[in-house]
């Protein structure tokens, strides 16, 4: 069944790519990322082959007139390393359609919230074990959403996501996610990026983030301050994250980040995640990588046992 679903997904993707020969407004893309990983969770260890958010997608931009376009995106996650027949190997990612013009961009469908988008590329280990979502809430991709992103005013822009109460994760309440952005998240057009984001009743949580990143020569540095509160119980968590990447030469990049989470309810718990890694560029869109992640989960208070992961793998983007 998984083979059939994979074949169907590839067939659909190939169909989308057919017009590319005649138009550059449709773009087919993907990422294959698979690693060999040693995992130790509470003293129980195993070796596994993991697919790290490998994906296929298509984007399009249909020009209606000089000031209006129809835009869309359809992206799916492909599980490239699971040998279980009981597991779906195709999962939905961002999938939406909307309008883009001088007024900004309006998108309807499944999409990352503004708070999730606000961190840009500060999380250097997104989609790996060290992903910030493992200690913090707020990395939400909501199904029944409407998003608006304003045009740029100088280096500033703003966005809002409305999550309808019909979304299964909303518990019958609508949610709002907002953000203000400054600069370029990839640090390619500017040396600074900053944003502030707020969630109100999104997936049962209120949350706030302040994000800043900068480029200093061969270094890229990032910082996030985060807070969250469970709406139903008032349970609060706050934390910080620091990340740094250093381009050693044209082939090697060294990376590291530290993330904290302090739970201020019941017995206070302090959790920490540390990740260090290295990338080796094989080509412009292909690399080898290795990383080590360790979680200190304050076992005496939380009852969660510490975890560590060591992985090496390969990634190819197309």
Proportion of residues in extended strands: over 45%
Largest sheet: 16 strands, antiparallel, barrel
Q: So, the CATH homologous superfamily? A: Porin
DSSP E strands, number:
17
The helix/strand series, from N terminus to C terminus, equals HEEEEEEHEEEEEEEEEEHE
Helix % is under 10%
**Regions with pLDDT < 50 over 5+ consecutive residues?**
1-24
Inertia-based shape: globular
Indicate how many domains the architecture comprises. Answer: 1
How far apart are the first and last residues' alpha carbons, in Å? 26 Å
Question: How many helices in DSSP terms?
Answer: 3
Question: What's the CATH C level?
Answer: Mainly Beta
The rounded Rg comes to 20 Å
CATH structural architecture? Beta Barrel
Content-based structural category: mainly beta
**pLDDT average, as an integer?**
91
Topology-level CATH name? Porin
Strand order of the largest sheet: 1-3-4-5-6-7-8-9-10-11-12-13-14-15-16-17
Précis, in short:
With 318 residues, the chain is mostly beta strands.
Describe this structure in words.
The chain has 318 residues and is mainly β. The chain is built from 3 helices and 17 strands. The chain has one domain (2-317): Porin. It has helices at residues 2-17, 114-118, 299-302, and strands spanning 26-41, 44-51, 55-65, 68-78, 90-101, 104-112, 141-149, 156-163, 175-183, 192-202, 205-216, 219-230, 236-247, 252-263, 269-283, 286-296, 307-317. The protein has a 16-stranded antiparallel barrel with strand order 1-3-4-5-6-7-8-9-10-11-12-13-14-15-16-17. A hairpin with a 2-residue loop joins strand 5 (90-101) and strand 6 (104-112). The model is unreliable at 1-24 (pLDDT under 50).
